[in-house]
Amino acid sequence: MAKKNKIWEIAYSFIVPVYNRPEEIRELLESLIGQTRRDFEVVVVEDGSTFPCRDVVERFAERLNVQYVAKENSGQGFSRNVGFEHARGNVWILMDSDCLVPPGYLDAVDAGMHERNLDAFGGPDRAHASFTPVQKAINYA
Question: How many CA atoms lie within 13 A of 120 on its CB side?
Answer without folding.
Answer: 3
